[in-house]
Amino acid sequence: MTLTEKYIREIQKHLPAKVKKEVAEEILDGIRQGMANGEKEADVIEGFGDPRKVALGYAPQIDYLIGPQLRFLYKRILGIVLVAVGIGLTVAQVISLLVTPESLFTFFLKLLGSYYNAGIMIFGTVTLIFFLINRQMEEETFSKEKSWLVEDLKKTPEPSEEINLAENLLGVLFSFAGVILLVFYLKPVDTFVINLALVLAYRWLLLALLFLVLGVALTLLIRRRNSNLLRMLKLLSGMALNGAIIFLITREDFLNPQVIEGFRGSLAVVGTLLENIPLVTVVIILVVTGLEIHDTVKAFSASKERWKP
User: Fold this and answer.
1) Is the model's pTM score more than 0.85?
2) Which end of the chain is more exposed for a tag (fewer CB within 10 A), N or C?
3) Mean pLDDT of all residues in 280-301
């Protein structure tokens, strides 16, 4: 990418979608005009100044709760968390209905109530976190005494080097949650559907792989720049963790047979659902791994195209 393309791209990151094209055309015309008058591209761009401040100049009257640069990440994380919690609540309520029969009206009333309470809590928590991050970013932008230089733009990652903040942030959160669960909360319980004693027997293997995945995700978040080496490390660490999970859940003693056998008669459907947990999990893991391999190969190809003479 040229300096002009990078500059306009950086400005657009801080603009609402409805004005991105118009502002890009205006900035591009200004740069072309300056270059036509004999100025160097870098000098013209440096004259425009910090892309974040330039973007603010096109919409100074808007006080964003969550700025445009964080909005995509905010929506992605909020959506993923809401869907995950919604699925969990639905499964829990269905199992509760099968174990303790009640009218469908009462069931749907409870389900809607749980959706409402969880939705309000998740929306409020995620929004508050992103609001604080947005305010911190704004303070850092306008409290810097050092003036913006075009050299800063040259350090901006190419599109093939950019990272998916939402994906890596979720990876850090889930990996950290897995570590906390394995270290502090996982205890062998005879009444649980999964044989937790088996999981505990492989605790250190799972922890080692989780720390590897966590380390790669944190490195990407800190560097804010991807590379083929990190892509390969992320893919291999994820495949190693997924392989360990598949190894555990496909063992005959993964499910607790006493718990499964407890679902008889009218509750037999629950037992059948529980028995298919390993199969469904393996299919999901294989699909996700396939998508990760596809994305990694695609990213490798894009990076090679960039360096073609």
Assistant:
1) no
2) C
3) 87
